[in-house]
Every structure is written in structure tokens, then in C-alpha cells.
Amino acid sequence: MMRFFTRMYYSVAMLRHHRHLLAQVNNAPKKISRVTDISPQQLHEQGINVLVLDFDGVLAAHGEHHPNQGLSLWLDECVKVFGADHIFILSNKPLPSRIAYFQQHHFGVRCIKEVRKKPYPDGLEMIMQLTGQPATCIMLVDDRLLTGVLAACIAQVQVAYISKPYVNLKKRPIQELFFIGLRVAERRLIKWFSHL
Ligand SMILES: [Mg+2]
User: What's the superkingdom here (predicted)?
Assistant: First the structure.
């Protein structure tokens, strides 16, 4: 419980510090709806060498154990372009079933675990150490402004904010509604902070 409040306090302090950058991401005219809107080849040409993917919302609806079936080809394409050792899954829920899935289907793609949750930049910093790549060559894809996007601002890595995350209201209505509400709240909060 204490850890939760410490993280909340840290999030608010960092939100205040990075409010203009967060507002920029929030107000970007060209939104990325889904992860498949991202062309691995194009990213690579723009100087990105390491791709870091959030799981919930980005690769599947909340709480799922595997990425959406339709993403399999896109993930293969990423592995082809970046190399499996330059792709990471950075989720605040690194479930064993998710780790096993990548071991089986996209071997070499690593799931970061045992680090402090986003928005702490620990996971991204670990990826910089593992790959030896500078922050400017790393891109995080995330659907949450005050966890993933904020962590990217703190670590100064590139970020792609997913505006239409995967949801499955039928399967997990309470959890999904909670996260939909959270997304609305964090957008408002960023707008409010950006006027300070
Ligand atoms: Mg997410």
C-alpha cells in the first residue's frame, strides 16, 4: 500500500515537471490508433533501433495472456527489422503466461520484469543497459499517459501514444470501464496541469 502511494506521489511530481511534453503528446494532431499503424521499417529508417512495447491495451485487451492473433505478422515483421534482441515487452503486469508466449512464438523478445512499475523509468533504463543503445534510438509504444508516456519522458526515450487501445468490454466490463475512466481522467489532468 505504501508503495502505491509513493508511486502516486512520484507520478504527480513528474507530471508537473513534464507537463508540457505530456500535453504535446496528448494534443498531437496525428494520433496513432493502433500498434499496427506503426511501420517497423519506417521507424528503423528514422533511427529507432529498439522497440519497447507495453502489453495491456497495446497488444491485447486488459488482462489477456497472449497478444491479439492479428498482431502475429506485425510482431514477426518487427523481429525481422529490429532483431528479436532489440524488442522488449515492458508491462506493469509481466505475467508468466505472457513471458512464456513470447518465448514460444517470438523467441528472443524479452519481457522486462522485477523492476519498479512505470512511470518509474527503471525498465527503460534497464533496456538501455542491455542494448547499449542511447535513449534517442529507443521507442516505447504505450496507451497510458501517466504510466508509459510519463516514463518515456523521464527516461527521455521516444514515445508512440496509442489512442485507441484494445478493449474487451464483454469479457472484463469492470476492469475495462475503470481503465477507460482512468484514460479520460489522465487526459483532463494533463490539460489542467499544462495551464499551470
Ligand atoms: Mg497499457
Answer: Bacteria
- pTM for this structure? 0.96
- Cell 513528474 belongs to 14
| Chain centre distance of CA 55 | 7
Distance 186 CA to ligand 1 centre (A): 13
The domain limits of the chain are 10-194
> Under CATH, which number does the domain 10-194 receive?
3.40.50.1000
The neighbourhood of ligand 1, an ion, using CB within 5 A, equals: 54, 56-57, 143
Beta bridge partners of 141: 53, 160
State the distance from the centre of ligand 1 to the C-alpha of 143, rounded, in angstroms: 5
